[in-house]
Amino acid sequence: MIDQTHTTSANPLVSSSDVDGTAVYSRDGEHIGTIDHLMIDKQSGKVAYAVMGFGGFLGLGEDHHPVPWGKLTYDTSKDGFVTDLTEAEVQGAPERHDTWDRDRDYEKRIHDHYRVPLYWI
Q1: Residues 85-95 as b or e (16 or more Cβ within 10 Å = b)
Q2: Can you give the pTM of this predicted structure?
Q3: In a domain, 20, yes or no
Q4: Block means of pLDDT (10 residues each) for the chain, length 121 residues?
Q5: What CATH number does residue 8 fall under?
C-alpha cells in the first residue's frame, strides 16, 4: 500500500495508468524492476497485487511475477516503489500460469509466500 508518510500530494488517489511502468527499488536503492500492471479485486476495489517485470533488456527476456501490493511502499524521493523483496523470494514464488486472474487459493499462496496479510480479510 502507498505509504502516506512518503507522499507529498494532497490527493491520495493515483490512476492505474500512472502506476504501470513505475520503477521498483530494493531497500538499498538498487533498481530491481518495474510494475507491468495491477490486479484489482472486482468486489472490494482493493489492489490485490502488482505484476512486476524483473530483468531483461528493453522488455526482452523480462520475467513477470505477481507481488502482493502490501510488499510495496511508494517513495516520492525515488518517484517509485521500494520493497524488501529478495531474488530468492521471487524465484521461489508460486508458479504463474497462463493468466493473472487466478483463484483465491493461488492468491493465498502468493501472500503466504511473501508473508503479507491477505487483503480480502
Answers
A1: beeebbeebbe
A2: 0.78
A3: yes
A4: 44 82 92 91 89 73 87 93 88 73 82 92 82
A5: 2.30.30.240
